[in-house]
Amino acid sequence: MTVRTTTPPRRAFDHRMTAPGTDEAFLAAALPFLAEGLAAADEPPPVAIVAPAKVDALRDALGSDAEAVTLVPHTDWYTGSAANAVARAAGHLATHAGPDGRVHLLMEPVWNGRAGRSPRESAEWLRYEALANLLFAHTSTTALCVYDTRTTAPDLVAAARRTHPDSGAYEDPLRLAAELDAVPLPRPPADARHLPAPTTDAVRSWAAGQGLGAADAELFAQAVTEAASLAPVTSTLLWGEAPACVCELRLSDRLDDPLAGFVPPPSVTPSPGQGLWFTRQVCSYVDLRPTREGTAVRLQYG
């Protein structure tokens, strides 16, 4: 994979991080941030997307200002994959932010939930944090990401510092994405099912046989066929049982864009090369690995 390094132009997107270990430390970081948002010109009220207990703590600490801040339990916001979080943020900016995306967002990913469930899913969320610096670079959004050290592993906090420009440990997002991709994928199991072609019917039937319900089997089949639309498929492997069904596609073309599938399509009908947008929304993680023959795409549903 060819690594493109970036020297971002003057940054409009202000991507900050705090790593509190107590309720008091959280409030010491959150309250001035929200006050900054309340005082900012040409901005709607700030939004705090944090753990339910922190919502209550903020409401108490803000007093009368609580009515001017949108408080959202993070379990209501982070309900899917990392790419789903990109879509949720982009949608919120498009419909609720001020000019140029101006809004203050206090954001706490659910690291003791889906985001930290497995090394691959954690890597997908770290990729999201890194690529956010590019995906939202055109906005004037101010975000403060909360990494509570009581619920987030120390290695994840250290890795997150590499994705936030104010941390003192920031690294180029594309270089960090390439580093995540350099971790070898486990080999497919010997009993993985080979399909002649990744048709919707064949994938749906297999997934249902592995225990996925009808709606989930349909979504998994759509995710696979969307990924398969990127280039001619030379091999299809399926393995796992519900809810963690896995598909690995081998494509004849080389796809090495680290932003693939994270950039929202301009219309409801994705153009060629944007099928991964749907796939990333549906799956818990998606790996793209350039190979000598083309590209390996491995996706996990559930």
UniProtKB/TrEMBL annotation:
InterPro entries, sorted: MEDS_domain, RsbA-like_anti_sig
Stored Pfam families: MEDS (PF14417)
Top-level taxon: Bacteria
Name of protein: MEDS domain-containing protein
Domain MEDS: 14-165
